[in-house]
Design goal:
Number of helices: 9
Strand content: 5-15%
Strand order of the largest sheet: 2-3-1-4-8
CATH superfamily: P-loop containing nucleotide triphosphate hydrolases
Number of strands: 8
Structural class: alpha/beta
Largest sheet: 5 strands, parallel
Helix content: 40-55%
Shape: globular
CATH class: Alpha Beta
CATH architecture: 3-Layer(aba) Sandwich
CATH topology: Rossmann fold
Bound molecules: adenosine-5'-diphosphate, adenosine monophosphate
């Protein structure tokens, strides 16, 4: 299955992507995680991307599309994937459609995680991520048993540079302007399903898996 998750920053895409990708036995491809890995390694891509990420802006389409093209060419993505955080603009969605059409494939479903701005701000303000395995935590909603330490791998947790209040506000503006139009784009293709992303993580996962079942996943 070829699946895309859309929704505002903090909607829970990365959190749900873990469970949904495991359920579907497909790789989870997060453009944010790939950019962050490049930032840590200090690659030219990471150095370029960091300027945009820290400002709450999107990395330019051309850079992002080339990176995703390379990633989707890897063997593990041949039979399906779950994209988390891509596409984020209509030109990226058009490029993805073309890329898949060239492979004789197409997206099966685009799942929108629906959650309001106040909840997103609560989620982003307390988000922590593991340096080791990238698992996502929340200081209040999903705390690890030991402060600052990942239960899964023992790695150190950190707060993302772009989870500061001013940057969060900018990311929400960018989402409304550049990414929200994807809902209409995929709605018009008849590929969109929206799910309520509020409430406990497990409840959202169940709603997501229910929605996938009704589309054959
Ligand atoms: P996104 O990938 O959409 O930006 P994340 O998956 O990183 O969002 O989630 C943002 C924050 O919200 C994280 O700290 C995560 O632990 C927390 N979170 C995710 N889902 C829920 C939920 N259903 N209820 C409460 N907090 C959640
Ligand atoms: P995320 O981890 O999905 O919240 O992404 C973190 C940051 O990485 C975003 O705020 C952007 O700066 C950048 N980014 C991730 N995915 C994309 C994308 N598809 N297009 C442009 N920038 C992106």
């Amino acid at each position: 299955m070829r699946l895309v998750l859309v929704g505002p920053p903090g909607a829970g895409k990365g959190t749900q992507a873990e469970f949904i990708a495991a359920h579907l036995a497909v790789p989870k491809i997060s453009t944010g995680d790939i950019f962050r890995a490049n930032v840590v390694q200090g690659t030219p891509l990471g150095i370029e991307a960091k300027r945009y990420m820290d400002a709450g802006q999107l990395v330019p389409d051309e850079v992002t599309i080339n990176m995703v093209r390379d990633r989707l060419a890897e063997a593990d993505a041949a039979d399906g994937f779950l994209l988390d955080g891509f596409p984020r603009t209509v030109p990226q969605a058009v490029a993805l459609d073309k890329l898949l059409a060239n492979l004789g494939a197409g997206l099966d479903l685009v799942m929108e995680l629906v959650v309001d701005d106040d909840e997103v701000i609560r989620r982003l303000s307390g988000r922590r991520q593991c340096h080791g395995c990238q698992k996502i935590w929340h200081v209040e909603f999903d705390p690890p048993s030991r402060d600052g330490i990942c239960d899964r791998c023992g790695g150190q947790l950190y707060q993302r540079d772009d989870d500061l209040p001013a940057t969060i506000a900018e990311r929400l503006r960018v989402y409304a302007r550049d990414t929200a139009p994807l809902v209409d784009y995929y709605g018009a293709q008849g590929r969109l399903v929206g799910i309520d992303a509020t409430g406990p993580v497990e409840d959202v996962t169940l709603r997501a898996i229910d929605a996938l079942r009704s589309y054959g996943g």
